[in-house]
Amino acid sequence: MTSTRFLMCALTICAALGLPGGAGAAPCEASLLDAIPARPADAPTGSQFARTVEAMSAGDREAVIEAQLEAGNLPSFLRRLAPVALGMDDGATGARVTACVLPDYLAIGSDRDFMLVPMRLATALRIAARYGFTLPTAKMVDAIYAQSAVHLAPRPLPAGDQMRSTTYYRHHNEIIGAQRSLLGMLAGTLLAGHKKDLVLTNRLWRAPDRVAIYGWHQPDGRPIQTLSTVHGARYADYSHGARLVSTRVYVDGSPRSIFGALADPELSRALSNEGPLVNPRELVAKLSVPPPEAASAVTAAPAVLAHAAEPR
């Protein structure tokens, strides 16, 4: 099935079921994007950015990534929103919840020349807050994949120390770009399957010096990466992506804070498989400040040993 036919089919099903995404669905207003700065006329392209950070340390590269996104250097196709319907897994009737998500992971550059940029958890959360967004939960990642018009196949690269290098970032970006070109897809189409997501989870209350990752769905819909907090909060590799979700969701068509919905005993069932997220605003604020380098290094080893069986 082509991406266009898939999208038409998905919309038809949503309309028939009366779910968000069909006729009469709550809109994801363009005003939700107003906090994203305009891209500077002299902003570097993705290729130029990659060359600039090629020889930098991970910390210096991270600072440049944040500065570029803070300044609004992201493609115009990321200045669009896609509605994603969220429901109860047990089939129970309840409120219809719609989340408004960016169609792809955060990238630096122009529509013609951009690079998807993995980043640390704190960086992603600070940029998200600057734009009026946040990160998804694992359940939301599943819903985004299920409702994406285009599914890209995961393309793992050989494991090793180079996973965190700009060279790997660039190479994986080129692989994804080739998939896009082969499909002939339009920029701004909701797509998934090509990255693991940085996610919010109650586990991070117990391990605030970690990053939670999930996803990288295979064609059969199963994720390669189960929910994991193996890595320290400063860790990022080529397979990670930061997909942003608006802090405004729609409950039966009415706007509501996503943080309020995540903390609500009933509504949280549509947004999370863990039940209510404990004090989500406070959790996001806490995770937006990275732990000191020394503290992160000291506590990393026991956690890796304890979770050695978890997929990376």
Please give a structural write-up.
With 312 residues, the chain is of the alpha+beta class. It has one domain (3-306). The protein has 11 helices and 14 strands. The protein has helices spanning 3-17, 46-53, 58-70, 121-131, 138-147, 166-183, 203-206, 258-263, 268-271, 280-287, 293-306, and strands at residues 82-86, 97-101, 107-109, 114-116, 133-134, 150-151, 191-192, 196-198, 213-217, 223-228, 240-241, 245-246, 248-251, 254-257. Strands 1-2-13-14 form a 4-stranded antiparallel sheet. Helix 3 (58-70) runs parallel beside helix 4 (121-131). The chain is globular and about 50 Å long. The two termini are 32 Å apart. The relative contact order is 0.15.
Based on CA atoms alone, the radius of gyration comes out at 19 Å
Q: Strand sequence of the main sheet, in spatial order? A: 1-2-13-14
**Overall number of structural domains:** 1
The biggest sheet amounts to: 4 strands, antiparallel
- On the 0 to 100 scale, the average pLDDT is 86
Q: What share of residues is helical? A: 25-40%
> How large a portion of the residues is in β-strands, by DSSP E?
15-25%
Query: Low-confidence stretches at least 5 residues in length (pLDDT < 50)?
Result: 1-25, 294-312
Number of strands: 14
Overall 3D form: globular
Number of H- or I-type helical stretches: 11
Order of helices and strands: HHHEEEEHEHEHEEHEEEEEEHHHH
- Ends apart, CA distance between termini: 32 Å
| Structural class based on helices, strands and sheet pairing | alpha+beta
